[in-house]
Amino acid sequence: MPITSVTSDPHALTITVVADYPVPVERLWEAYADPRQLERFWGPVEWPATFTRHDMCVGGESHYRMTGPDGASSSGWFRFLKVEPHRLLEMEDGFSNEDGTPNDAMPTMRMVFNFEKVGKGSRFTSVTHFPNLESMEQVLKMGMEEGLRSAMSQIDAVLADLASFAAGRATESKILNDKQVRISRIIRGTVADVWRAHHDAALMKRWMLGPDGWTMPVCEVARKVGDSYRYEWEKADGSQRFGFEGELLESDAPHRAVTTERMIGMEGPGTMNVLTLTPVTGGTLLTAVVTYPNRELRDMVLGTGMVGGMELSYARLEREVLGAPK
């Protein structure tokens, strides 16, 4: 059990958690920066969390849902106010309704996480600030202190698991719910370089090709919110041409971009794609959350080998554009 103390102060309206870990501060920080790791300890043991959004930058947000053993669920959000890598996180923290919107009937808190080097390891200090005593008592009655102890009892195993989150692993996918899939890979390059590689047409034509033998004759990039984009591919002999088009809905360079996507010539609704880039040891954690209109389309697209094709492209991006070692 890494927790050394949990202290409630009704006068200061705070709950303070202190925990020590035998790992460098950088490793501990990344457990909070990477949604794949965070969801392995954010909820209590019996209530694991799934993150559908996690933008760890100032102004960014996180959305998650915890699911209990009987199928019941509880959702929450936080909005980042300060992000000082390997040192401090400050954020608003609240509850969500079933549709993901903030639940204004429940209290909103302010959380401050401090990360510091202690001896050969690191110390994590979390201070939760409540707006008033009633809110604090309400959350404590819901079992917040017990939930914190249960959730944080899982961190040691996450921190010890280096292989699952190391640079060099192939592209991975995780089904988040009936409509959403999260694609993850660490790209061996800086956030700025990976962002540019996704928004510079000349670079995109060099790497965004899937299997060998394909070209990208059309690459019209959306430059600002509201712009449309169009990408087309064909085999080297000019056959089997296909493409996608859509609109840029949100852009927060170099951290996050939200686009719609539809196959050219296909009727019916398309997808919404959210690209998030986060600096981590070894490069940039690329996370793409794809929202499909229904489960059937989700499963059909995954069945085409999409993730394998993305891996071939990302490996080419590292090798031919970013100059990462083989």
Structural account:
The chain has 326 residues and is α+β, with helices and mostly antiparallel strands. The protein folds into two domains: 3-165, START domain (Alpha-D-Glucose-1,6-Bisphosphate, Chain A, domain 4, 2-Layer Sandwich); 172-322, START domain (Alpha-D-Glucose-1,6-Bisphosphate, Chain A, domain 4). Helices cover 23% and strands 41% of the residues. The chain has nine helices and 16 strands. The protein has an eight-stranded antiparallel sheet. Strands 9-10-16-15-14-13-12-11 form an eight-stranded antiparallel sheet.
Spell out the key features of this protein.
326 residues, alpha+beta, Alpha-D-Glucose-1,6-Bisphosphate, Chain A, domain 4, 2 domains, eight-stranded antiparallel sheet, 9 helices, 16 strands, 23% helix
Give the helix/strand class. alpha+beta
Mean pLDDT: 94
Radius of gyration: 21 Å
List the helices and strands in order: EEHHEEEEEEHHHEEHHEEEEEEHH
